[in-house]
Amino acid sequence: MNGTKAKAYAERINRVCDYIYQHLDEELPLELLSELAHFSKFHFHRQFSEYTGITINRFIQLMRLKRASYRLAFAKDERIIDIALDAQFENPESFSRAFKNAFKQTPSQFRAEPQWPEWHTKVHLQLPNKEGYQNMNKEIDIKIVDFTQTKIAVLEHRAAPNRVNESVSKFMEWRKQSKLSPVSTSKTYGIVYDNPETTPPEEFRFDLCGSVEEDIPDNQYNIKSGEIPAGRCAVLRHNGSLDNIGETVCYLYAKWLPESGEDLRDYPCFFHYLNLIPEVQEHELQTDIYLPLNS
User: Fold this and answer.
1) Are 117 and 143 within one domain?
2) Could you give the number of structural domains in the chain?
3) Which of 22, 56, 112, 249 is buried most deeply by CB count within 10 Å?
4) Are residues 117 and 171 in the same domain?
5) How far apart are CA 121 and CA 63, in angstroms?
6) How many angstroms separate the most distant Cα atoms in the chain?
7) What does each C-alpha distance from 234 to 153, 183, 263, 269, 288 come to in angstroms?
8) Cα 56 to chain center, whole Å?
9) Can you give the residue range of the structural domain that contains 107?
10) Within this chain, do residues 153 and 250 fall inside the same structural domain, yes or no?
C-alpha cells in the first residue's frame, strides 16, 4: 500500500474511532460504522481488526470500560450499578466480569485502589497513525497572550507518567478536604518539566496545580504553595483526550516556534485544564497549552 492510500485508509479507520468516542452512550451497529468508513460491511470487521489489532466490538467495549474507570476512580459517590448501565451492560455482574477480564480488578477493587500502570497498558492502543503534529491544520489558532502571575497550590508528581492518575486522586482529595482550591471556582493547571516520550520513567517530573488566594498550610498531602509567573506566552488549545496532547505540544515546539521568530523564556510549558473528567467525557476535554516566551 503506497503512502497516499495508507493515509486515506488510516483516516477512514480513525473516522470510525472518533465517532465511537463521541457516541459511547448509543448503539453502534456494524452497518453504521462500516458506512462511516466507506467499507463493505462484509469485510469491515476484519479490516478494522487487521489494521488496529483489536476487533471492533472489543474496541467499543474497551472504550466504554475506560470511561467507566474514570468514574469509578474520580466520582466515588456514583453507584456502580449506574456506571454499569451507562457502559451498556445489562447488569452489574456482566459489567464486573468484563471489567475484571480487561483490567484484572473488579470495579470495587479498582475504585478502592486503582492499578493505573497496568490499566494504561490495556487502554492505550496503537491505532492507525495520524502523522502527529505534521497532520495538524496549518491555520490552527495560536495566540500570544500576557499571562498574569497566578498563586497556586502544587502537588509534585515525581514518578512514571503512567502513575499520574495516582497524584490526580491525591490532589482531588486535598481540594475537597481543604476547600482552598475548589474545582468549581478555581483554575486547574499542569506544569510539564519533562517529555514523557524521552525521559526515563523514574526521572519524569510534572506538577498538578490549582489556583488559590492564600498560602497553603502544612498538610498530609504534601501540597505546597507556588506560583506561575507573569509573562508572554503562546497559547494553543488541545481538544479531546489527553492521551495525544503530546502531538499538540510537539507542533508548538517543532513547527510553530522555529517559524515564529520567538524565543523561549526560562520556564516550562504548562497546561490549563478548562474542564475535567468525569464532569465531561474524554472527547469533550479542552486544554490550553502555554509556551512561555521572552518579552
Assistant:
1) no
2) 2
3) 56
4) no
5) 13
6) 63
7) 23, 25, 11, 10, 10
8) 22
9) 3-123
10) yes
Same domain for 153 and 229, yes or no, is yes
In the three-class reduction of DSSP (H, G, I as helix; E, B as strand; rest coil), residue 283 is classed as helix
Q: State the Cα angle at 28 between 24 and 31, rounded to 5°.
A: 160
Cell of 258: 522555529
Would you say residue 282 lies in a domain? yes
**Domain CATH number, residue 97:** 1.10.10.60
3-state secondary structure of 186: coil
Residues 171 and 101 in one domain: no
CA-nearest of 209, 192, 204 to 270 is 192
**Angle in degrees, 0-180, between the axes of helices 30-37 and 44-52, rounded to the nearest 10:** 70
CA distance 278 to 269: 25
Say whether both 26 and 73 belong to one domain.
Answer: yes
Angle value at C-alpha 246, between 14 and 204, nearest 5 degrees: 135
- Per-position pLDDT tens, the chain of length 295: 556 777 787 888 889 999 999 999 999 999 999 999 888 888 888 888 888 889 999 999 999 999 999 999 999 999 999 999 999 999 999 999 999 999 999 999 999 999 999 999 999 876 665 555 545 555 689 999 999 999 999 999 999 999 999 999 999 999 999 999 999 999 999 999 999 989 999 999 999 999 999 999 999 999 999 999 999 999 999 999 999 999 999 999 999 999 999 999 999 999 999 999 999 999 999 999 999 999 9
Ranges of H-type helices in the chain: 3-22, 30-37, 44-52, 56-74, 80-86, 92-103, 107-112, 116-123, 164-178, 245-250, 257-260
Q: Where do we find the cell 503530546?
A: 246
